[in-house]
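Thread: quick sanity check before group meeting

JM: Hey all, I'm pulling together slides for Thursday and realized we never actually wrote out the predicted structure for the chain we discussed last week. Dropping the sequence here so it's in one place. If anyone has concerns about the input, flag it before I start.
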Amino acid sequence: MKAYLGIDVGSVTTKLALLDEGDELIGHTYLPTQGKPIEMVQEGLRQVKRQMPGNAEICGVATTGSARYLAGVIVGADLVKNEITSHAVAALLYYPDVQTIIEIGGQDSKITIIREGIVTDFGMNTVCAAGTGSFLDHQALRLNMRIQELSRRALDSQTPVRIAGRCTVFAESDMVHKQQMGHRVEDILHGLCQALVRNYLSNVGMGKEIKPPIVFQGGVAFNQAIIKALREELGTEIIVPGHHEIMGAIGAALLVHEEMSSSQNTSQFKGFDQSEVEYHSSSFECKACPNQCEIAQLSLDGRVLARWGGRCEMWERVASR
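JM (edit): ok, ran it. Output follows.
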């Protein structure tokens, strides 16, 4: 059996998806990155290996996400793709008529506009985190409750309180004020969810023509209160895929399947043994020009394997073997 592996390494979570030759999901994992992308990619490899059928062979690997280059070097990726493309390809597989993809992650958010199966526009947050999952995580922590409890209790609200959530700092201040006024916690929580949605639409979705069908992807789609707030704000149905949290990894696997099928090349996948290798990551500041880019590098036994992160291609090369 031919199998294709997609790896999506984000700042908050690391996702792996294994597809068979018919693009059916046969293995997947969803792990917290915890600031340790190398270790989480390795743990993901261990978990996927345990799920993989005995007669399966990895015939292609692709990486995506904020740490896609790092993951690509570790596993020997045949393809490295951005998140916009990966999420769009996955959404189109399950929902060919999709016109808008809302993707909200832990620390970044994106919107992708699709017309007739082609990506025509996209947007993503740049600085503010008020339209991301970390916004709610921060407020849940302050209220001494788990994010799952926040989602559940927000759904019990009948009269949500409007929270001035243009910024995480202002939202927290306004939330304290509403508590002091005696508003129910459930109403404040739903107000926070509405604030996140308003921030997302006014920041990431600004100027975008949001048309249904709308597919909601990313880890925040676990939160039923956010889905409800999106429905209220947009006045239309919100579609949440069954595997919304790993759609980026699924898209990467789909893309490498297509790539390897058309090229007939042999995969560069280094094997599941990479899960036991001790890599070292570090960074330094490039002083070649006034940009002073921070360059990340990956090493093994004192030998640099790869460098990336600059605005130019000066460091975008793999060290000679």
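AS: nice. The mean pLDDT is 88. The CA atoms of residues 47 and 171 lie 39 Å apart.
JM: adding both to the slides.
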